[in-house]
Amino acid sequence: MSSDDNPLFQLFWSFAVISLFAVGGANAAIPEMHRIAVDVHHWMDDKQFADVFAIAQLSPGPNVLIVTLIGYSVAGVAGALVSTVAMCGPTAALAYVISRWLTHPREARWPAIVQAALVPLSIGLMAASALILTQASDTTLPALLITLGSAIVASTTKLNPLWLLLVGACLGFAGILG
After folding, report:
1. Residue 43 maps to a domain
2. Which of 35, 57, 66, 86 could pair with 12 in a Cys bridge, judged by C-beta atoms 3.0 to 4.6 Å apart?
3. Between the CA atoms of 139, 38, 126 and 138, what dihedral angle is there, to the nearest 10 degrees?
């Protein structure tokens, strides 16, 4: 079996590369995770991806849990471990090197410039994540309308988002969302 056919190698390589571009956290990398898991390797379909994302968000702990769940669905416990290490390892090493470098800046202006540039990049990546998840999970008109309504209410009011989740859960339980 070549390394290209080995699912553990594919998981490791995919998530190691994604981790280096996950500016803003794991949720900012959702579009690329979706592309790799659904479109490239066909490890799961859109609904399964949306379900894995929902489980990761409902579970306590870091958002990177989605990587663990994708790895588990591909190759069991070994896949979960490989995916998690691949997603966390390169980023942790890079963060360590950069933090050590920033403790002795040669030019005081460039860290602020880089940080200012990363803010809109992070927001754009998270918006792309929201779009991918909406496309993957809102397969009916009522579900799409609930998503859009929730986004509007969440962004224009100070209503606790848990109330929106409760309403969505009740509508889903009632069978309205399909």
Report:
1. yes
2. 86
3. 0
pLDDT of residue 2: 59
List, for residues 90-110, the tens digit of each pLDDT value: 988 988 887 777 776 565 676
Amino acid code (one letter) for 37: A
Tell me if 149 is assigned to some domain: no
Torsion of CA 51, 56, 60, 61, to 10 degrees: 180
pLDDT lower than 50: segments of the chain: none
Asked whether residue 53 is assigned to any structural domain, the reply reads yes
Provide the number of structural domains found in the chain.
1
CA–CA dist 77, 160 (Å, integer) = 36
Q: 113 CB contacts (<8 Å, ≥6 apart)?
A: none
Helix (H) or strand (E) holding 65: helix 65-102
